Amino acid sequence: MDYWTAIDNIYNLTLTLSFLILMILMFHIGRKGIKVNNRYGGISTIICGICFLIFGLYNSIVRFFPYPYNGFMVWWIGIILLVSFSFFAIIKREVRKMESETEDVNLKGEKKPILKRYIERMTKENPYREDITFKMELIRKSFHLMGLLLLLAYFGFFALYPVTLIVSDSVIVLINQIQPAYELIWGPIDKFPFVFGDFQAIIYLTMMALIGALMFAIISDLIRIIWGPEYSIFNFLTKSMLRNKEINATGPQIYIITGFIFSYMLYMVGILHILAVFSGILIACLSDAAAALIGRRYGKHKVIVRSKDTKSVEGFLAGIVLAYIIGLILVGPIYALIGALIFFLTDYFPIYTADNILNPIFIPLGIQLFINLLGLPVGWF
Do 253 and 143 form a contact (C-beta atoms < 8 A)? Predict the structure, then answer.
């Protein structure tokens, strides 16, 4: 085994251990959530933990990324840890400073610094809410637009090449420009896994974007759960839109990205059709957002689902219709019916499991099952 092969194995082992550590933390947090009677969040968090176990096993056997991209991901995780704990240290120092103050230094009507206002909001009132305002729901659901970003990353749009291909080609240009520095850190340039216009780069870099997003979101969310919401940089950036379902449990952004990675992983090993995967991703993102927002704004006919949450007929219809339209565009009219039906089932029937993790997994699996059974063409081309 030469030096660079050993480095490759170290990076891959580090990435595998990262998933296994996350698995342990998710199991621990999920158990705590169940103990405080947050079964919805606790069970959903444990399901994510099971997925992380599968991710760790997959990476140790098959690998998510070739070298040096597994190294890039490990460095990304290190950068996130550095940024997250730097923010933690800044907030910790500000909290101690506020605790030592004997009088209000802003009595003259001066506007308090943003960090001070943020900490006061997190500590002087309960940041977890049973319900959030429509504006906060709109901001929260805006994160679901990342499904469209994934579509651009993989397929591009008309004259726009897939974003991941643009990134890959740019990296190739860069490493050729800085060849001596690259070879010092990452090894011989002729072992770089991709060439210009390589379709494999699209596949791997889309997964890299998914796992990179997961690591950013989950590290910050774990800090929120373990030390408090005021210490989470993600919580700070999103202006704290926490619900009671997130007490001792990870947030919905973790569930949905985990579901994306799971289904995309099944595509990478040849189990799922790529259009089935993206049908699940876009339905999970856009239909769920449409159902929530339409239901909040226009819902007049209330429905109590199996989890005892109150939703609306208008919201259900909006979500189901959009789910069918998305499926119709991507996989055709027959498989679109399957996707819309599964969306309805995962939205109405689960009692203790988040639809954010069920939709991106079960919709692609359901569509793929009927692709195998019916053998009809997928899509329009």
Answer: yes
Helix (H) or strand (E) holding 34: helix 3-35
User: Are the beta carbons of 367 and 271 closer than 8 angstroms?
Assistant: no
The DSSP annotation for 58-78 comes to: HHHHT-SS-TTHHHHHHHHHH
Q: Give CA–CA dist 317/347, Å, rounded.
A: 12
| Residue 381, burial from CB neighbour count under 10 angstroms (0-12, 13-18, 19+) | exposed
Phi, psi of 124 (to 5 degrees): -95, -5
Neighbours of 187 (CB within 10 A): 19
Per-residue pLDDT tens over the stretch 317-337: 999 999 999 999 999 999 999
Q: Which amino acid is at 24?
A: I
Q: Name residue 304's beta-bridge partners.
A: 310
Q: Which amino acid is at 220?
A: S
- What contacts 201, CB < 8 A, 6 or more positions away? 164, 165, 168, 194
Question: What value does the mean pLDDT of the chain take?
Answer: 90
Using DSSP's 3-state secondary structure scheme, residue 128 falls into strand
CA–CA dist 209, 160 (Å, integer): 18
Alpha-helical runs (H) found in 36-145: 39-61, 69-100, 114-123, 134-142
CA 277 to chain centre: 15
Distance of CA 108 to the CA centre of its chain: 44
In this structure, of 97-101, 205-209, 277-281, 366-370, the range with the lowest mean pLDDT score is: 97-101
Where in the chain are the domains? 3-144+201-264, 272-381
Handedness of CA 177, 183, 187, 190 (dihedral sign): positive
